[in-house]
Amino acid sequence: APTYSIMISGHCRAGNTERCTELYKEMTGKGFTPDLLLCNSIIDTFCKAKNVDDALQVLDKMSKVGAKPDVVTYNILLDGLHKANMLEKADELFSTMVANGCAPDLITYSTMLDGLCKRNRIKQAQEMFDTLLEKDLVPDIVTFNILMDGLCKAGKLDEAKDLLDVMSEHNVAPDGVTCTILMNGLCKDKRTDEAVKLFMYMKEKGSVVDVTPHNIVLLGLCREGKLGQALMFFNRMVKSEGEFSPDVVTYTTLVNALIEVGKVDRAVEYFQRMTDSGLAPDYVAYNTLMNGLKKQGRFIQADRLTEAMKAKGFLTD
RNA sequence: AGUUGUGUGUCCGUCC
């Protein structure tokens, strides 16, 4: 059984859902019972693969063999259900959890908070935040970042900045993710210059500034039509050699920007450069180029790209 | 030993 545990958790972490499922079936078939931590890993792997139904079945099996799910089990499933838009199931599970004597913790509330924020239910999210305080739970940086992002995406940038004060009242210092969330909010509000200021501030402060804030600045420049600056910025990213090297999102942002100004050949060039640099385009990357090719009537190239997508398993129908 | 919540790209949808 420990052998299975190690193998399964390895595949789980690698995101190899199929192999993970196979091994799990094989293990249970042989009469071995996965322990709680392994069950949680498996459930999480299913959830992250958007396979919440199988995840729930693992929960069912657990209760059959009398294994008690813990708060982590419930948190994982609540997150999966929210992200799969199964809200009624999520509420149901929350009730089950409480009925089974499992006390919701900070992560439970943060997970639900995120679910509300992502649906733009800001008012309810703020109520959830108050509830969490009433329960004497202590919000951490992730809780605040979730709320910060919700406020920014709802266009409430002023309230987002006010939240910084609330954070310091709770002795929670903003981190790189907080800054990135605010930068993104500023960019989406067409305040790229302010976002860049925040970006520079982060760099001056010596924080670790990874590829994500760079991608946000790049997108901001592209949206402002400053393609020349965007390309210079991109070149600096290439030279960073690892610290904030371009990723699939970086390339997709540029490909899209080039398409929008009608430079499809250059877009194709950058797409090629992405694969040449050893990055594997994802569905969004393919879709971006595909739409550009079709918009320009490049049907032969589009067909060729369709074949590539099929070969990679991105088109299942 | 190993498990859960937060930030960036395309299209579509929802709201205005």
Structure description:
Helix content is 74%, strand content 0%. The chain is mostly helical and 317 residues long. The structure holds one RNA strand of 16 nucleotides.
Tell me the layout of helices and strands.
Blueprint: H1 2-13, H2 17-29, H3 36-48, H4 52-64, H5 71-83, H6 87-99, H7 106-118, H8 122-134, H9 141-153, H10 157-169, H11 176-188, H12 192-205, H13 211-223, H14 227-239, H15 248-260, H16 264-276, H17 283-295, H18 299-311
The structure holds one RNA strand of 16 nucleotides.
Oligomer: single chain
What gyration radius follows from the Cα positions, in whole Å? 23 Å
Shape: globular
Beta-strand residue fraction: under 5%
Query: Can you write the helix and strand succession as a string?
Result: HHHHHHHHHHHHHHHHHH
Please estimate the helix content.
over 70%
User: How many individual helices?
Assistant: 18
Overall average residue pLDDT: 93
Q: Which regions contain 5 or more consecutive residues with pLDDT less than 50?
A: none
Give the strand tally: 0
Largest sheet: none
Could you write a compact summary of the structure shown?
By secondary structure, the protein is an all-alpha fold.
Task: Provide the descriptors you would attach to this structure in a database record.
mainly alpha; about 325 residues; about 75% helix; RNA-binding
